[in-house]
Write a structure and sequence with these properties.
- By secondary structure, the protein is α/β, with parallel strands linked by helices.
- The chain folds into 2 domains: 130 residues, Response regulator (Rossmann fold, 3-Layer(aba) Sandwich), CATH 3.40.50.2300; 200 residues, Methylesterase CheB, C-terminal domain (Rossmann fold).
- The chain contains 11 helices and 14 strands.
- The longest helix is centred in the middle third of the chain and has 20 residues.
- It starts with a strand and ends in a 6-residue tail after the last helix.
Length: 349
């Protein structure tokens, strides 16, 4: 079986050594080279033709974002960004994911211990393996796509749209939000991201969308034309309070290996919103959201899964579909219209 070949690009010799040691222990992965800056990396990409690149964001001679733009224009390949867990690092990472990076990992802190290295090993190796098998194709820019017209149903039968995503979700959600009108039903989102990253992501979606997009806050009342993203490190639940639906943030144990978890969001929507909900599960590795989506379907919600061909990683949508939680699978560029057409149906089941 051919091994996944990896080139590590980082100006820190310590990080290059840690990543080399971690990845070399995996039976499916071979580190075929390292580079300390983008100029050296450019030559080694030509010589070694790696399957996957890990790329530091902050480097001398050329920053990682500028180098990523050149890679995606001249030699598209799976790239995993290496970022600091700061607001600056978050902003740059979100930009990298929009450009076409498959995923990211947090740069290990200098006072790392056995536990943190163990977590990094599990995360880095799994993301390299998934990146190597990710669908990599030319981007279809949705900026030129027309915003979909939405006519709310007569009688005030409002819907709530709940969306879950992981690997590839930044680009998928960006595509989706470029198509949505200002009078879209309220949207709640769990995208797997750490603290700081979700605030930056919400701001970027807010800038490109007709909707008002924000990080969810405790007790925020869901409003049409607004979207609420689960903050990194906290679960987002939806509760019914009288005639309103509100956000509840919860700092509890990880669920399905994640915090925020799509299962937590979807299960709460099943209980609070029931048949007035529309569920959407987008690209991502793993199974988070599958059981919650099934609970939503059993509660009367209508559920859409991203199809295999348009997913970066057909993991979460596949498990949700096989479990029976998905009514319809659709390509990414049809999901916005599909969910809005359903939301127009008064009393639809």
């Amino acid at each position: 079986m051919k091994k996944i070949t990896v080139l590590i690009v980082d100006d820190s010799a310590l990080i290059r050594n840690i990543f080399t040691e971690i990845l070399s222990e995996h039976p499916q992965i071979e580190v075929i080279g390292t580079a300390s800056d983008p100029l050296e990396a450019r030559e080694k990409i030509k010589q070694l033709n790696p399957d996957v690149l890990t790329l530091d964001i902050e480097m001398p001679k050329m920053d990682g974002i500028s180098f990523l733009e050149k890679i995606m224009a001249l030699r598209p390949m799976p790239v995993i960004m290496v970022s600091t867990l700061t607001q600056k690092g978050a902003d740059a990472t979100i930009r990298a994911l929009e450009i076409g990076a498959v995923d990211y990992v947090a740069k290990p802190v200098s006072n790392h211990n056995k536990d943190t290295l163990g977590a990094l090993k599990e995360e880095l190796t799994s993301k390299v393996v998934n990146a190597a098998s990710a669908r990599f194709k030319s981007k279809v820019i949705a900026q030129n796509s027309a915003i979909i017209k939405f006519t709310p149903p007569i009688g005030g039968n409002k819907r709530i749209i709940a969306i879950g995503a992981s690997t590839g979700g930044v680009e998928a959600l960006r595509d989706l939000f470029l198509r949505l009108p200002a009078n879209c039903p309220a949207i709640v989102i769990t995208q797997h991201m750490p603290e700081h990253f979700t605030k930056s992501f919400a701001a970027r979606l807010d800038n490109i969308s007709q909707l008002r997009v924000e990080e969810a806050s405790n007790h925020a009342r869901l409003k049409d034309g607004h979207a609420y993203i689960a903050p990194g490190g906290l679960h987002l639940k939806i509760l019914r309070v009288g005639v309103d639906f509100v956000c509840k943030l919860e700092d509890s144990q990880s669920v399905s290996g994640h915090k925020p978890s799509v299962d937590v969001l979807f299960n709460s929507v099943a209980e609070a919103v029931g048949e007035k909900a529309v569920g959407v599960i987008l690209t991502g590795m793993g199974k988070d959201g599958a059981e919650g989506m099934l609970a939503m379907r059993k509660a009367g919600a209508y559920n859409i899964g991203q199809d295999e061909a348009s997913c970066v990683v057909y993991g979460m949508p596949k498990v949700a579909y096989n479990l029976g939680g998905v009514h319809l699978q659709a390509p990414l560029n049809k999901i916005a219209e599909t969910m809005l057409r359903y939301c127009e149906k008064s009393g639809a089941k």
